[in-house]
Design goal:
heterodimer, A: alpha+beta, 11 helices, 64% helix, B: alpha+beta, 23% strand
């Protein structure tokens, strides 16, 4: 007898995400209006150019910064085969696969679009997790690829970065219209930028959290095993505490590699970047598992 | 996935496209008459076996379904898990048409049970005139076939033969146009 689809729709999550994007758009529109009115446009253009450079050059940079190296199917047959089958199921082209040699368990996805994406796993995570758990993690990263999360977050954070640059360098670029009574002065622009930066920072954090939830959900749908991903998250969060402080600081220094400041570092979707608390993610996955079993 | 789906991270698995499976029956005629490719008498269907109570029952029922329709055709049915945690239903029958019917029955049963989006591929095993094994894989998500010729050595495939096969049979069989979707299946248990 026919059953309803295995997982219900998560309308709440989609509504929250749409709302966040909408608010971000509003806030950014306000910033752009103030910029154009005050003659800060050259700064906007400079940031746009740097931004484009990051978008197009960040892949290789990010891989190198994380110490990841692309691997052939002969070098990592299990990983390749696992990702291949996930790609069949998710109807995705197979991304490039890279491995980073570090004991810290982590996985991330890089790339503007599914056709030019790379997914990476560390040796730490490959050693720590069982095959089913690792499959859940790779499905999570593939969902990021399919949702184009890197691109979405990079674009979403563009004007926040403009605002932060105005705040930092606004005085040097002083408004070209300062002689004109009608256009806002540099002080006003900087104040608006501070406001935009604060609000958009919070909105971006929220957006990033929602996309993590969406990626967890996508992994559950692709693999059909939400509990495997939940179990993987539990193992990893236990593992993170055991890693000595030195490793975490080392990866923080590499953040300086990026053209944009660390708080806007969105060229890769890390398993833990501005993530929701682990308990909430596991709870969401448990609900999905209950739906799956309950529908049976 | 549309722009709005991307923005809001909506997820949906592709529904299976089982209707083109029977193109294999006509292609097999060309295989035997013109290309010297013979069926190896084995076919398999691979899917993600979910750990729900009714899925286990479904697999058990499925074996009976296939045995039921193949009473006069002696199709052997077996199921096994591969090393990556996916489940295979393996059919053995020297009559190729019966194999296709059996595969279709299995996929139909899975779909009727509501698990159609867990189907990955159907695989048909052949041997060419030189006695080397080759497979044709049907991707349920995309409704297209592609050849898969494992070469000797780990994770090696004979891409030249695969492309040649595409040229030879492309008119009869809906072959997957994007080469990057010709996913290898290592460890096929047939």
């Amino acid at each position: 007898m026919p059953r309803p689809t295995t997982f219900g729709k998560d309308t709440g999550l989609q509504v929250r995400m749409t709302l966040t994007l909408f608010l971000l758009g509003l806030v950014y529109a306000a910033l752009v209006g103030v910029i154009f009115a005050s003659g800060y446009t050259p700064l906007l253009i400079i940031v746009a150019v740097m931004f484009l450079v990051q978008v197009f050059a960040s892949d290789k940079l990010a891989l190198h910064a994380m110490g990841a190296r692309e691997v052939s199917p002969q070098e990592a047959p299990q990983l390749h085969a696992m990702v291949e089958r996930l790609c069949v199921q998710a109807n995705l082209p197979k991304p490039r696969i890279a491995v980073a040699n570090t004991p810290m368990p982590n996985a991330f996805a890089i790339g503007r679009s599914p056709k030019s994406a790379t997914v990476c796993a560390t040796t730490g995570i490959m050693d720590l997790l069982s095959p089913a758990e690792l499959e859940g993690v790779m499905a999570h990263e593939l969902t990021h690829v399919q949702n184009r999360d890197v691109m979405v977050m990079t674009i979403a954070s563009f004007f926040a970065t403009v605002a932060s640059y105005i705040v930092q360098f606004g005085f040097f670029f002083g408004g070209g219209g300062s002689d004109d009574d009608d256009s806002p002065s540099a002080a006003v622009v900087i104040l608006v930028s501070i406001g935009v930066y604060v609000v958009s920072f919070l909105l971006l954090q929220a957006l990033s959290r929602y996309r993590e939830y969406a990626a967890d959900r996508g992994a559950a749908i692709i693999t059909g095993r939400p509990s495997a991903l939940a179990s993987a998250l539990m193992r990893i969060s236990g593992g993170m505490e055991r890693i000595p402080q030195r490793d975490l600081r080392a990866s923080e220094e590499l953040a300086a590699f990026y053209i944009f400041p660390p708080h806007a570092k969105n060229s890769l979707m890390n398993l833990f970047s501005t993530h929701p608390p682990m308990e909430k993610r596991i709870a969401a996955l448990s609900r999905l598992e209950a739906q799956l079993q309950g529908a049976a | 996935m549309g722009l709005f789906d991307v923005l809001t991270g909506k997820r949906k698995l592709a529904r299976p496209a089982p209707d083109r499976l029977f193109a294999m029956t006509t292609a097999n005629i060309t295989f035997e008459t013109e290309l010297g490719i013979r069926t190896a008498g084995r076919a398999g269907i691979v899917f993600q076996a979910l750990a729900t109570a009714d899925f286990d029952q479904l697999v058990k029922d499925m074996v009976e379904v296939v045995q039921g329709i193949s009473e006069d055709s002696h199709t052997d049915v077996g199921s096994q898990d591969d090393e990556y945690g996916y489940r295979w239903i393996v059919l053995r029958d020297d009559d190729f048409d019966d194999l296709v019917v059996g595969i279709n029955a299995v996929s139909g049963a899975i779909e009727a049970g509501g698990y159609g989006d867990r189907l990955l591929c159907a695989v048909f095993a052949f041997t060419n005139s030189a006695g080397r094994p080759l497979y044709f894989i049907y991707n349920y998500k995309r409704g297209s076939f592609y050849p898969f010729v494992p070469a000797g050595g780990a994770q090696q495939r004979d891409s030249e033969s695969e492309l040649r096969l595409k040229a030879q049979i492309g008119a009869e069989l809906p072959i997957e146009p994007e080469l990057e979707r010709w996913f290898p299946l290592w460890g096929i248990p047939i």
